[in-house]
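step: validate -> pass
step: tokenize input -> pass
step: predict -> running
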Amino acid sequence: MNSSVSPPLPFRLPLIAILRGITPNDAVAHVAALVEEGYDGIEIPLNSPQWERSIGDCVRAFGTRALIGGGTVLTPDDVVGLRRVGARFIVTPNTHPPVIQRAVDLGLQVVAGFATASEAFTALDAGAHMLKLFPATTYGPGHVRALRSVLPKSAPFFVVGGITPDNLPQYLNAGAHGAGIGGELYRPGQSVEVTRANAIAFRQALQEHAA
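step: predict -> pass
step: emit ->
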């Protein structure tokens, strides 16, 4: 178990549920299952069908119980669209300062994607609140450990890409504060029951690590 003190996070459960490819017809039911299992950070990527409708519906249904945000945010206009439908945070795949700054200006939390220490500092200098190492399994826990030795301890650090219930503890031990979980949690077309079972497995892995 990593004994270092974690910085404050906007999410009670430090697992961001990524529902890439979800449709408006499925979004509310799957998010309901996640919220019931204690998840309060839900990301719907903007390359999902009719993301505006999905995010708006979920904000109206669960906005008082969870933070609903958008992922794969590439332009300042994307940020404006997310703010319009009530999103509370954005997740980027890169460190494009105009996107980060626009989100900060509009009062959204920013989880900025990066791979190197230089990119991480660029994101933080632009105002990012949190960092996202992606794709995490390409670099491995050793890369996380090395980055944590130079990055500010006040910067929440998530790992995303290839994270499973089995390898999650390795990344937490290396210094990650949480994870974004995508394909191992949700794939388009799967049942709500499968999403719930996957969510429980990740939550149990996190709890067992913290015990």
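step: describe -> Residues 15-210 form a domain with the TIM Barrel fold (CATH 3.20.20.70).
step: cleanup -> pass
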